[in-house]
From TrEMBL:
SUPFAM superfamilies noted in UniProt: POZ domain
Highest taxon of the lineage: Eukaryota
BTB domain sequence ranges: 139-198
Membrane-crossing residue ranges in chain numbering: none
PROSITE patterns noted in UniProt: BTB
Gene3D superfamilies, alphabetized: Potassium Channel Kv1.1, Chain A (3.30.710.10)
Protein name per Swiss-Prot or TrEMBL: BTB domain-containing protein
PANTHER family referenced in this protein's UniProt entry, alphabetically: SPECKLE-TYPE POZ PROTEIN
InterPro entries membership: BTB/POZ_dom, SKP1/BTB/POZ_sf
Organism of origin: Loxostege sticticalis (Beet webworm moth)
Length: 280
């Protein structure tokens, strides 16, 4: 199986695959393992068979895909939308599983190529606190930043973060006083955290600080979504700064996602080098 025009950026993947049956009775051909956002593997397999009906060769091809988490100790569940215009498939959904091969298409051609487009996301939690987002009457806890505080519900915080759950469920000073100070964090970042916890929305700016908060409070779903959004807007101009940020704060998810984006050619190393040298 031949692959070309590979393009990867954050949680998206595009590639063109070509298949040729060289008159063999049976063959199984598998694409490379494409790692998406450092979190899951996507792969395509073709089982090709050729028989002669007495007059001509007849070719049968079965196309399969698999989508599996890269780290089995990852508590998140991922989903992809699979699209191929040439196969007539649009936004076919797959959930990360144990690596099962799923049949998606069959044809009777000896030689053919097709496009593949995959977009990955995290499967959201079934519970939702959207109706409590604007509530002020029942809020019973404060997250205090450098320039102001955000009011939230203890139960919502506890459900969103194991760190906050331990703090709120114990005898910590913060639990009895009804607030916690978050040093080095702005009120805006805390509001972004609240917006995600209650509404599953992300801001357009300030993602780096929100990412640090997600890492500190052990919220891997928010951390991954921040990484995906940052890498989806990655350019040669901001790649060096984001790499430095990821290394300085030891944000492994972001560091690996940026390196994968560079390796796939979505961001060119020579363009990064030129930008870096111009800034010195």
């Amino acid at each position: 199986m031949e692959s070309k025009n590979l393009f990867q950026r954050g949680n998206s993947l595009q590639v063109r695959l070509g298949v040729t049956n060289y008159n063999t009775p049976f063959a199984a051909k598998t694409s490379p393992e494409y790692v998406i956002s450092g979190s899951a593997i996507f792969q395509v397999k073709v089982i090709a068979a050729q028989v002669n009906n007495g007059h001509t060769n007849v070719y049968n091809n079965l196309l399969f895909v698999r989508f599996v988490k890269l780290r089995q100790d990852d508590d998140l569940t991922y989903a992809i939308k699979f699209t191929s215009n040439e196969l007539g498939i649009t936004n076919k959904n797959f959930i990360s599983d144990d690596g099962t091969w799923h049949l998606i298409y069959d044809n009777k051609k000896q030689q053919y190529s097709f496009d593949v487009s995959v977009s990955m996301d995290i499967v959201p939690s079934a519970s939702s606190f959207a109706s409590l987002h604007e509530d002020l009457e029942l809020t019973d806890f404060e997250l205090r930043g450098e320039d102001g505080s955000v009011h939230m519900h203890r139960a919502v915080l506890a459900a969103s973060s194991p760190v906050l759950r331990r703090m709120l469920g114990g005898t910590w000073r913060e639990s009895t006083e009804g607030h916690v100070d978050v040093p080095g964090t702005s009120k805006m970042t805390l509001q972004h955290l609240k917006d995600y916890v209650y509404l599953h929305t992300l801001p357009e700016t300030g993602l780096e600080q929100l990412l640090l908060l997600a890492s500190y409070y052990m919220m891997p779903d928010l951390e991954q979504k921040c990484v995906d959004k940052l890498v989806n807007s990655l350019t040669a101009e901001n790649a060096c700064d984001l790499l430095e940020f990821a290394a300085k704060h030891k944000v492994t998810r972001l560091l690996l996602a940026i390196l994968e984006c560079v390796q796939s050619g979505a961001v060119k190393v020579n363009e990064m080098r030129d930008h870096f040298l111009r800034g010195k």
